[in-house]
């Protein structure tokens, strides 16, 4: 567990306060960058955020960062554990731009935070620990960004100072893991300015080459940087004042820039034409000014043809300013995405996060998609068809708020006073025409995989406990709770998530309770005797009808298990529900206006939540609505579809049971490896791969080709080549990847501590539900009281 020092001295310093009071709301939306840092756990997002804050005008002077703690990880639980739990958004002035910067958690248990941040950003910097390359959750967050169509992205290959860091392998891992077919290197690391030290990668990183601006940056031990323009004459590169002439990087500088321009020109005819007009001599590409390159880079980043790649060391503040410049230059602004920028356009905003504060009450984080929001105004929650009153408006500087009178188009801020709004809701001005009342894309909470009973201390604690759970699930929609057989169950995304939930219920919501034994959540799949689809039998049979409220209502459904390659929707708990024309219905609550198919979908959802055989939620079903009658009132369709669906499931018989599996990445020393592996296999884990910590995912099948991309030669990543030849030692870290049932791993924290003498570390990532064996099925049925 990492420990951090508190930065309270900074908060209390006069400097800090002065800076806070000078914040102004930006009014030029083209200068706003709504962006987030996303990545696998521990890749350095919060450290980079801190570095950005220190180098921006947020905190005026540097020099005190090294004392530890960060501005954005301000919750006690975050400081204690050294991990980010909730995303914090913070407006940062950077040169001409204002970044609304969101630092997100990397731990998959807090995936909801990445989910909602992804919904409101126009750009994401994805970090990679350059020792590890692309990791499981890197791919996880990448999918989340895809799901919400985040238009612009950049990679930051962090931790270049670490022994074993490899720029080259990290870059190749982007291709091998199919993150992007065209990563484009904008900056190169310089391990050392001394040729001898460089070959040993000591001290790790001292400088960067900016291949676009054609500059070289050097950092001294105190973190001060100097920028040297590079010559545009190839001969002059061999006699630089700031780099010894025998430095191994020199012969690679011109080829790296040439390749950047040539690769970019493959996507841009204009640039190709510019390059073709240049004289055919080695130096000619070096003279192309960056102002002639950036517009092409920007355009191709927008079109997702290329993925810009920069690098550095957040902890040493190396590369932070270059990365931020490129965010400003390459990322989309609110005016670049679909919007209505007219000054008098009606207000339209999305609530992307809701939190509770003892003093201020409900705080709703919003992004303004058109118009502007003023304090003390009325708004309409279009998702819930509910009027709301806005009291105050705030800009959040992490935990410190600054009150403002309005939030203009493009802004991200906080609204006080809203009573009913939940994460994902669309809000509009009350007088908005019906056309602009349509709701925007919702935010999808990930599936719960673990639960625990919540036992109130006394009868009088019951209601406060339920209220606390209701409030908590409003701030974190990935927390669900329900009543099963007289017990309150709280469901979450993992063991750590439940631990944090327990703490928050007590500390924030003052509930008195005990948490019972943790249980993983199970699912039931469709039984074997399901009916064939309707085109293979008489169209409407008695099984397609339900008697309800004195009428016979028809709801014809085709039900079968999902097939290989078909993916269920997270909003449907892993099921796929299609309308009559075969289009997936996005969610059971996808619209406030009821139409017959949505009413039927709602009945299907009710039935799926509890199997008639095991009472478990059902998953991995493929359901298509085929036909229905029109009863009066129309709402009878919901009850009818629930009855039809339940009868069909009963007839199909009990299906296989499924339990959640997780991918574990365990890092241990060579001498404890054997014990750790034995323990994993004894607990039902399948070993996936054993590594030495420097993986570029090269064995991953079907990666993107290296052709057409610039992959720097090995000599430009001296740190990793050193480590490879260093031989094994008992202290050498080994990495074990394993797929294991969560039920066997609930106590893995303490088990690993005991097995590894406290030195082992692990992280885990949900790998979905898997069908269990027959003996395990019996065990589960006994556990849930069904056998
Ligand atoms: N050597 C080295 N360590 C770094 C660097 N950046 C971050 N770290 C360390 O890596 C660890 C994780 O850093 P964080 O900034 O908390 O990582 P994070 O991505 O915010 O982690 P989560 O929020 O928990 O996902 C800390 O111990 C940092 O000191 C870096 O550039 N070099
Ligand atoms: Mg963090």
From TrEMBL:
Short name of any one Pfam family annotated for the protein: EFG_III
GO MF annotation list: GTP binding; GTPase activity; translation elongation factor activity
Keyword Iron: no
GO cellular component terms attached to this protein's record: mitochondrion
Residue intervals of the Tr-type G domain: 30-335
CDD domains per the UniProt record, alphabetical: Elongation_Factor_C
Name of this chain's protein: Translation elongation factor 2
Provenance organism: Lentinula raphanica
């Amino acid at each position: 567990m990492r420990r951090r020092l508190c930065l309270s001295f900074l908060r209390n310093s006069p400097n800090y306060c002065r800076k806070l009071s000078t914040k102004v709301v930006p009014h030029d939306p083209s200068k706003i960058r709504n962006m987030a840092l996303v990545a696998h756990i521990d890749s350095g997002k919060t450290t980079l955020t801190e570095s950005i804050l220190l180098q921006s005008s947020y905190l005026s002077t540097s020099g005190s960062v090294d004392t530890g703690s960060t501005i954005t990880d301000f919750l006690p639980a975050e400081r204690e554990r050294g991990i980010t739990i909730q995303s914090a958004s913070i407006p940062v002035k950077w040169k001409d731009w204002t970044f609304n910067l969101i630092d997100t958690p990397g731990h998959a248990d807090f995936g909801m935070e990445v989910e909602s941040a992804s919904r409101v950003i126009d750009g994401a910097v994805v970090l990679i620990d350059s020792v590890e390359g692309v990791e499981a959750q890197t791919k996880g967050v990448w999918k989340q960004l895809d799901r919400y169509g985040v238009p612009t992205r950049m990679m930051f290959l962090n931790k270049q100072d670490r022994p074993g860091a490899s720029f080259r392998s990290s870059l190749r891992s982007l291709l091998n893991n199919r993150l992007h077919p065209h990563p484009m290197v904008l900056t190169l690391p310089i391990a050392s300015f001394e040729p001898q030290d460089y070959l040993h990668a000591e001290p790790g990183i001292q400088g960067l080459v900016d291949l676009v601006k054609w500059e070289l940056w050097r950092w001294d031990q105190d973190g001060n940087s100097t920028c040297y323009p590079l010559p545009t004459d190839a001969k002059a590169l061999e006699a630089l004042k700031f780099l010894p002439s025998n430095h191994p990087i020199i012969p690679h500088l011109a080829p790296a820039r040439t390749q950047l321009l040539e690769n970019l020109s493959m996507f841009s005819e204009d640039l190709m034409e510019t390059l073709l007009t240049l004289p055919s001599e080695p130096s000619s590409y070096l003279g192309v000014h960056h102002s002639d390159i950036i517009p092409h880079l920007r355009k191709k980043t927008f079109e997702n043809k290329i993925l810009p790649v920069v690098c550095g060391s957040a902890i040493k503040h190396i590369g932070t300013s270059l990365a931020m410049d490129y965010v400003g230059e390459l990322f989309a602004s609110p005016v670049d995405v679909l919007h209505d920028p007219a000054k008098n356009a009606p207000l339209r905003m999305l609530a992307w996060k809701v939190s509770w504060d003892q003093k201020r009450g409900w705080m709703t984080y919003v992004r303004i998609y058109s118009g502007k929001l003023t304090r003390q105004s009325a708004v309409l929650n279009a998702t819930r068809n509910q009027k709301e009153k806005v009291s105050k408006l705030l800009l959040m500087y992490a935990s410190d708020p600054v009150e403002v009178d309005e939030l203009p188009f493009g802004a991200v801020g906080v609204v006080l006073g809203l009573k009913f709004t939940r994460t994902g809701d669309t809000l509009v001005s009350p007088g908005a025409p019906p056309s602009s009342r349509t709701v925007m894309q919702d935010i999808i909470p990930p599936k719960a995989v673990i639960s625990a009973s919540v036992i109130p201390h006394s009868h009088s604690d019951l209601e406060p406990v339920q209220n606390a759970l209701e409030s908590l699930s409003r701030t974190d929609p990935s927390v669900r709770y329900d009543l099963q057989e007289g017990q309150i169950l709280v469901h979450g995304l993992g063991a750590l998530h439940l631990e944090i939930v327990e703490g928050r219920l007590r500390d924030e919501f003052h509930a008195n309770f005990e948490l019972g034994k943790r249980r993983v959540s199970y699912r039931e799949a469709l039984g074997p005797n399901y009916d064939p689809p309707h085109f293979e039998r008489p169209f409407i049979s008695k099984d397609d009808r339900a008697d309800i409220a004195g009428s016979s209502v028809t709801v014809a459904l085709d039900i079968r298990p999902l097939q290989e390659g078909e993916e269920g929707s997270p909003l449907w708990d892993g099921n796929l529900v299609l309308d009559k024309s075969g289009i997936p219905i996005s969610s059971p609550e996808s619209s406030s206006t009821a139409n017959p198919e949505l009413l039927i979908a709602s009945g299907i959802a009710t039935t799926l939540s509890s199997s008639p055989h095991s009472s478990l939620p059902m998953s991995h079903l493929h359901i298509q609505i085929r036909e229905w009658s029109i009863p009066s009132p129309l709402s009878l369709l919901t009850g009818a579809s629930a009855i039809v669906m339940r009868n069909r499931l009963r007839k199909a018989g009990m299906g296989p049971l499924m339990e959640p599996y997780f991918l574990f990445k365990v890092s241990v020393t060579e001498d404890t490896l054997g014990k750790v592996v034995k323990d994993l296999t004894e607990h039902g884990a399948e070993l996936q791969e054993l590594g030495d910590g420097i993986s570029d995912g090269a064995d991953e099948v079907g990666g993107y080709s290296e052709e057409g991309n610039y992959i720097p030669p090995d000599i430009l990543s001296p740190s990793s080549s050193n480590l490879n030849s260093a031989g094994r030692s008992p202290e050498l870290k080994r990495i074990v990847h394993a797929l294991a049932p969560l039920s066997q791993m609930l106590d893995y924290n303490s088990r690993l501590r005991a097995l590894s003498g406290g030195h082992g570390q692990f992280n885990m990532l949900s790998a979905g539900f898997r069908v269990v064996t027959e003996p395990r099925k019996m065990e589960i049925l006994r556990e849930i009281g069904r056998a």
